[in-house]
Structures are given as C-alpha cells and as structure tokens.
Amino acid sequence: MSFPVEDVTRKWGRPSFSVPTPEERFEKYAGLLPNFLLDLWRELGFAGFRKGLLWLCDPEEWQTVVDEWTSGVDLPFGDDKWIAVTRSAFGRMTLWGQRTGLSLTITPYSGWLMPMDKSKYMSDDYMRDAQILSALSAASQDVLDPDGDDDKPLFKRVLKRLGPVGPDTMYGFVPAPALGGPMLPDHVQIVDAAVHMQILGQVTPRTIMMNPY
Q1: Under 8 Å CB-to-CB from 15, ≥6 apart: which residues?
Q2: Could you give the angle at which helices 193-203 and 59-70 cross, rounded to 10 degrees?
Q3: Which one in 16, 89, 108, 161 has a CA-CA gap of 20 to 30 Å to 57?
Q4: Are the beta carbons of 128 and 101 closer than 8 angstroms?
Q5: Quick count: other Cβ atoms within 10 Å of Cβ 29?
Q6: What pairs with residue 115 in β-bridges?
Q7: GAD-related domain: from which residue to which, for each copy (predicted)?
Q8: pTM listed for this prediction
Q9: Phi/psi class of residue 111: alpha, beta or left (left: φ > 0; alpha: ψ in -120 to 50)?
Q10: CB atoms inside a 10 Å sphere around CB 108
Q11: Dihedral class, residue 210 (left if φ above 0, else alpha if ψ from -120 to 50, else beta)
Q12: Residues 161, 154: contact at Cβ < 8 Å?
C-alpha cells in the first residue's frame, strides 16, 4: 500500500454514507485503476463524505454518464478510456483515463470539461496512487460547492431544505441552467443522478476549459 487510507479520512472525516464494494469490482478494475483507489473502496466502500458533498463513485453505475459526456469530445491530449472516480453532490466528476491518468473533470451544470494531462505521472504504481491522494487532498468545499446566481454557496442551503443526497441521487437544477433555469436553492431538486447527468449531457453545450482556476 503506497498511502494509508487515513490520509484521506484525516482530510474528509469518516464517511457519512457508504455502500460496500462488491468483490467483483476489485477483480474487474485491478490494473485499470490505481491500487490506492481500490484500497479506499475496500475500507470505505463507495463512500459519501460530509453529508454527501463528495462521493467515491461506483464506476459501473456511472459508465453510461461518463460515455455520454466524453463521446466525441476533442481533448487537447487526444482520446482516452474514461472511468469515474469521484463526484460531488451537484455532479462535478473527476475521471481516470487509462492513458492520461486523473486528467479530466466535468462540471455538468455549466457544461465545462477541464482537461489536465497527467500522463507523465503514469510511469509506476506510486505515481498513479499519488494522483488519487493529491486530488482528494486538494478538493475543497469551495470547489465542490458552487455559488448560486446570488453569489452565495449553495450546498448548505440546499442540504437544509432537501436533506442529503445518496449514492444514486444528486442535487439537480430544475430547469437546467442550459435551458435557462437559475442556480438558486429553490430551483434544486433531489434527482436520479445517472438519469439527470445523462440528460444534462444531451442538452448542455460543452466548453473545454483550459486552466479555469
């Protein structure tokens, strides 16, 4: 094991929610995903942290969403085969590329795709593991919790009004911002995450964001 699981729970705390990882996931994704991510699955499951703000994804449940959002997209480092790693309560996803590593973030409510080629960090298991730890250590409330149209963070206000999301649900803006809907708490519903994300992928124009922060 390159890193202890406590390196993640020290930052995020123990999971608020967790779905045990089926044994067949380890068999299928061994060698395709970093060992440290599989260690997190084994100890924490497909976990939600801080009342559902951040989730470790079950890639099987999210592959259709990943395919919807990455199909036909012209990224600066070319094509890759993508697997979902994390997502936020509002659907912001980080994806692992078999060739380029943890190199693509999707923000569905804005249609942003943020590429950052990590292929130089793919040479050994330690560097692959370090990408997962680095991403989870760098993730913050500010990044995962979008500001609404009133310039105030949304998560705590929506959590108070609707309660937490689960492993298969998310906070969705209704109507979607791409269709003119406002990003305000009273326009958020708890929705089926995979279905909502696929619909967003069909109606939201994609924008490749280079160095957006």
Answers
A1: 44, 45, 47, 48, 49
A2: 10
A3: 161
A4: yes
A5: 18
A6: 104
A7: 7-107
A8: 0.94
A9: left
A10: 30
A11: beta
A12: no
Is the alpha carbon torsion for 19, 83, 125, 76 positive or negative? negative
Tokens encoding 135 = 């991403």
Tokens at 181, concatenated: 């809907």
- Tracing tokens 């942290």 back to the chain, one arrives at 49
The whole-angstrom separation of Cα 54 and Cα 15 is 10
Alpha helices in the chain (DSSP H): 6-12, 23-29, 35-44, 59-70, 125-138, 141-144, 155-162, 193-203
Q: At 210, is the pLDDT very low, low, confident or very high (cuts 50, 70, 90)?
A: confident
Instruction: Tell me the C-alpha distance between 118 and 53, whole Å.
Output: 25
Q: In what order do the strands lie in the sheet with 112-115?
A: 17-19, 46-49, 54-56, 82-88, 93-97, 101-107, 112-115, 207-208
Could you report the per-residue pLDDT of 41-90, keeping only the tens digit for each?
A: 999 999 999 999 999 999 999 999 999 999 999 999 999 999 999 999 99
Residue 213 has pLDDT above 50, yes or no: no
Is the peptide bond prior to 167 cis by the omega test (within 30 degrees of 0)? no
